[in-house]
Design brief:
Order of helices and strands: EHHHEEEEHEEEHEEHHHHHHHHEHHEEEH
Number of helices: 16
Structural class: alpha+beta
Helix content: 25-40%
Strand content: 15-25%
């Protein structure tokens, strides 16, 4: 049984602790037909969706799957917290919930979690992934292509762009301008929106550059990212991209955006603004960014509460190609840096770490964008996997996409050399 959007808004990862609101939804599902609205649902939500209709939907879920046993796979996001409910019959249901001022303002019951996929071979994987909206795929083995779809095409990255920031920091450390142990002060002026944790730190608190970098990569901390961009310098990040020979990425990422700037753009740009930015010079783009209204974090969060569908993903974003991201991951491996290895290997979803000597991972998403980049190493064999999709009209079905990623990683794992018996 599939459930679709219940209510329009009226106003990629490590598992996080379930929110109070997600637990309330789990409990309310168990009420079924006896559900009544509580104080946790906003007045606008209650007005838009009569209690009887929501009670009927909850009753259908309870009747088909049994009681909600627990909330699993919770992931907080400015675009709506994603989580799943596990039920008595073992089925997992995927949901998205949006809150404003600690009240539930939006709810999607997306349906049963997609069943696992198993590809017979790489060709089957390519054919399936090619069915995605605007797909990107590159699998390299020892720098030789196994599969390729749009490997040189301009691709919006989401938070995958943070690999460029990490590389800029690494270069500063190699140039003896900084060390991993150097401490950097949190500034309220540089705080961004979630994902992450460092936006919750007090103004003036210190953390090491290593901690900033690890949080930027492992939990995609936006505040950590913007502090590092300020520390390194926007133009220094751009120069480092160029010095790596990543010519496409260099041309596509000037000026190099901070996460806060992108949030501000998403909250204020209209279609004309996006097209102007896409066609503008670097200087013209900087002037556009300077004119974007700077609002307080709470106000920015509220302005973005309706951001559920793609906005300007091919006009204002961070861009690269699958081939250049794989080159960058290969460069990181060649640095032989313990800190880089630790940072990039902390969060590696869907991959069996026991099967590899080294795994790197960074992914990124926003409404309409979902990208995942991996680097695997086993003895002398090195694999890079870039897999992604973007859509100009609709958000990405994450659960279905993740199953394709898992199945593709299984093919790589099966391709590994057999251990000597």
């Amino acid at each position: 049984m599939k459930y679709f959007l219940l209510l329009l808004l009226v106003s990629c990862s490590t598992t996080q602790k379930a929110s109070k609101a997600s637990k309330i939804i789990c409990n309310d599902l168990n009420l079924g037909a006896d559900f009544t609205y509580s104080e946790y649902y906003s007045k606008e939500f209650q007005s838009a969706l009569p209690k009887e209709q929501l009670a009927e939907i909850y009753s259908q879920v309870k009747g088909q799957y049994g009681d909600c046993v627990e909330v699993v796979d919770f992931k907080a996001s400015i675009n709506g917290d994603k989580f799943s409910t596990k039920h008595e019959n073992g089925q997992i249901i995927d949901l998205t919930i949006v809150e404003k001022n600690s009240k539930i303002t939006g709810l999607w019951i997306l349906g049963e979690r997609t069943k696992p996929i198993n590809y017979a071979d790489f060709k089957e994987a390519k054919d399936d992934i090619n069915s995605l909206s605007r797909p990107s795929l590159l699998i390299l083995k020892n720098e030789n292509p196994i599969l390729s779809i749009n490997e040189n095409k301009r691709t919006p990255l989401g938070s995958t762009f943070k690999l460029f920031v990490l590389d800029g920091l690494l270069q500063q450390i190699k140039d003896k301008k900084s060390t991993w142990e150097d401490e950097l002060k949190i500034s309220n002026n540089l705080k961004s929106l979630p994902s992450g944790e460092m936006q919750n730190m007090e103004d003036g608190e210190f953390a090491s550059l290593y901690e900033y970098a690890q949080k930027m990569i492992s939990i995609s901390d936006n505040t950590a990212t913007d502090h590092l961009i300020e520390k390194i310098g926007r133009t220094s990040v751009e120069r480092q991209i160029k010095s790596r020979g990543l010519k496409l990425s260099y041309g596509w990422n000037r000026p190099f955006l901070t996460t806060k700037e992108l949030f501000q753009v998403r909250s204020s740009f209209n279609a004309t603004d996006y097209k102007k930015y896409a066609n503008n010079t670097t200087t013209g783009r900087i002037l556009q960014l300077q004119k974007v209204s700077r609002v307080k974090t709470d106000e920015l969060m509220n302005k973005l509460s309706g951001w559920q569908t793609p906005r300007g993903v091919l006009d204002t974003e961070w861009f690269s190609s699958p081939k250049e991201i794989c080159r960058l991951l290969t460069y990181f491996d060649q640095e032989n840096s313990e800190e880089i290895d630790s940072i990039l290997s902390k969060n590696t979803p869907f991959a069996d770490k026991d099967l590899f000597d080294k795994i790197y991972y960074k992914g990124g998403s926003e409404p309409g964008v979902l990208q995942m980049a991996y680097y695997f190493k086993k003895k002398q064999d090195r694999y890079c996997l870039f897999i992604g999709t973007h859509d100009l009209q609709s958000s990405i079905d994450e659960t279905s996409f993740f199953e394709k990623v898992k199945a593709t990683i299984k093919l790589i794992q099966a391709d590994l050399p057999k251990e000597d018996s």
